[in-house]
Design brief:
Layout lengths: L6 E7 L3 E3 L4 E11 L11 E8 L7 H16 L5 E7 L3 E5 L5 E2 L2 H11 L10 H13 L6 E8 L7 H11 L4 E7 L5 H10 L4 E4 L5 H13 L3 E9 L5 E9 L3 E2 L5 E2 L4 E9 L2 E10 L2 H4 L6 E12 L5 E14 L2 H4 L4 H25 L4 H14 L3 H7 L3 E5 L4 E4 L9 H10 L28 E3 L5 E3 L15 H4 L6
Parallel strand pairs: 2-18, 4-5, 4-8, 8-9, 9-10
Antiparallel strand pairs: 1-3, 3-16, 5-6, 5-7, 11-15, 11-17, 12-13, 12-16, 14-15, 17-18, 19-20, 21-22
Helix pairs in contact: 1-2, 1-6, 3-4, 9-10, 9-12, 10-11, 11-12
């Protein structure tokens, strides 16, 4: 992979006018990657591990369809891709090849299909062993740049929290992992946690017959990846910090806890492997006037964004940068505005949070579940989320969706799997356009009006200097006299 395998851009949408006394700067980052049309022969080396649940509960049509789905996935792999198929139960074992990773070819695809035809279902569900074997297989091919696994289960992890947490921690940063749930007995909380930490996605599959098509689509998406290990670095000045980061499109998932501190000013967030795609992220910076030593109506840089890809050998290559400018004001008309696209996503985030809280309360028997699920119904109606409302209606009786007036259904009347499906649909997002339907300027909100071609900034005192993103001493900083631009540090 080369740094120009994809053309990345970062767009910043925010209201740069912050009310005096506030420390919260909300920003929408739109990250786009465009395929420049590099020849197929230049595509990065990929490794794929396909894990199917072969526990006793998979007996019958489910195991047959799961094996067929794995065969379909292998058929999509381009020649030269490293791959393995793993059976997961109380332990994990390699179905094909016997050890290590095979190289995709007409011969190995046929051999994998024959091996899958012999798989039977038995045993329990110990997901930590599935993850551990996948990590070991990936590590056997250090030359693989794109590392992806897809796992299928019909049940919940039965080995306890400790082994799964340890295995998950060991797998972070080693490969991207997607999960699929089949049937009604798996836990959305387990799948969400694993895929969040391993930068993948999860979804329920309604019927076993749909597995093959889903696996083929997942493999096609992996084969289209062009950039490995994309990271988002956020530089903030003394006293400031990243307060929140979430992906808000195409799905809603908080990523704040995944940040790794590089130095006193910089936190780095992994974004996974990328193909030609677009994603939106909601970033909140905790920063005050005193941190930037800027007067009212003066402008300053509250944060600097750096997007990088990982090259073979682990070297990072910066592919896009942006600055986030702010000014503090006493003008309520200026400071009360929210960038229109960010406002749209804030509503979807509130909806997802309301569903999560409501489902958690319902599962635990909390008396507050009725009120919380009622709010979830009201917000789902407000955002025209008919599929979500349909799923929630299997848990509650909706009397007035606009007002969120509901009654809880007796638990024995709630179909199995309703909670999993409700959580899934709550997390699905869609691209929010600006108020005028265009993707250009939002009436000034979110657009920095300064000429940033040389990345210069001026503060209220009328002086300016060129400040650049530096990798000196292993960190990133604004060059210039820190005493001239920063207020006192805040622990």
């Amino acid at each position: 992979m080369t740094p120009d395998a994809l053309r990345f851009t970062v767009r910043v949408d925010h209201n740069e006018h912050i009310p005096v006394g506030s420390r919260s700067v909300g920003v929408l980052l739109t990250i786009s990657a465009e395929d420049p049309g590099t020849a197929a022969g230049d595509r990065p080396v990929a490794a794929e591990v396909i894990v199917i649940d072969t526990s006793a509960s998979m007996t019958g049509a489910k195991i047959d369809r799961a094996c067929q789905a794995a065969i379909s996935a292998v058929e999509v792999l381009r020649d030269g891709t490293y791959f393995a198929v793993v059976a997961g139960q109380s332990f994990a074992r390699s179905v094909y090849p016997a050890r290590g990773l095979a190289v995709a070819s007409p011969v190995t695809r046929e051999e994998a299909a024959r091996a899958l035809s012999q798989v039977t279902a038995r045993g329990g569900t110990s997901m930590s062993t599935w993850l551990t074997l996948t990590r070991e297989l990936m590590d056997s091919r250090p030359d693989a740049e794109i590392r992806h696994a897809i796992m299928l289960t019909d049940g919940q992890n039965t080995e306890g929290e400790g082994p799964l947490a340890a295995a998950l921690e060991a797998c972070k940063g080693r490969f991207v992992c997607d999960w699929r749930g089949i049937g009604d007995d798996w836990s959305y909380l387990q799948l969400r946690r694993i895929t969040r930490d391993l930068l993948g996605d999860w979804k329920p599959v309604a019927e076993p017959d749909e597995l093959a098509q889903d696996f083929r689509a997942a493999m096609a998406a992996t084969m289209a990846k062009r950039a490995a290990g994309v990271t988002l670095s956020v530089w903030t000045p003394d006293g400031a910090k990243v307060a929140y980061l979430a992906r808000v499109m195409p799905v809603i998932e908080e990523l704040t806890e995944l940040g790794v501190v590089r130095d006193a000013h910089t936190e780095v967030f992994p974004l996974g492997d990328w193909g030609a795609q677009v994603a939106d992220y909601h970033l909140t910076i905790d920063v005050g006037q005193e941190d930037l030593n800027v007067e009212v109506e003066g402008r300053a840089r509250a944060a600097r964004i750096e997007l990088a890809v990982t090259l073979p050998g682990g070297e990072r290559s910066v592919v896009a940068t942006e600055s986030i400018g702010v000014s503090w004001t006493e003008d309520i008309a200026l400071s009360s505005r929210i960038a229109p696209r960010l406002a749209g996503y804030l509503g979807l985030e509130r909806l997802a949070a309301a569903v999560d809280e409501g489902l958690a309360a319902w599962k635990s028997g909390d008396p507050g579940a009725r009120e919380q699920l009622g709010e979830a119904v009201r917000l789902a109606h407000e955002h025209h989320r008919e599929e979500l409302l349909e799923r929630l209606s299997t848990i509650v009786v909706i009397e007035d969706r606009a007002e969120g007036r509901i009654q809880l259904r007796p638990r024995e009347q709630v179909p199995p799997g309703s909670v999993n499906w409700s959580s899934y649909f709550a997390g699905i997002s869609k691209y929010v356009k600006s108020e005028d339907g265009e993707d250009g300027e939002d009436d000034g909100a979110g657009e920095l009006t300064e000429d940033r071609s040389d990345d210069s900034w001026s503060d209220a005192r009328g002086w300016s200097e060129e400040r650049s993103w530096s990798e000196d001493r292993g960190g990133s900083e604004l060059r210039g006299d820190p005493d001239d631009r920063r207020g006192p540090a805040h622990g």
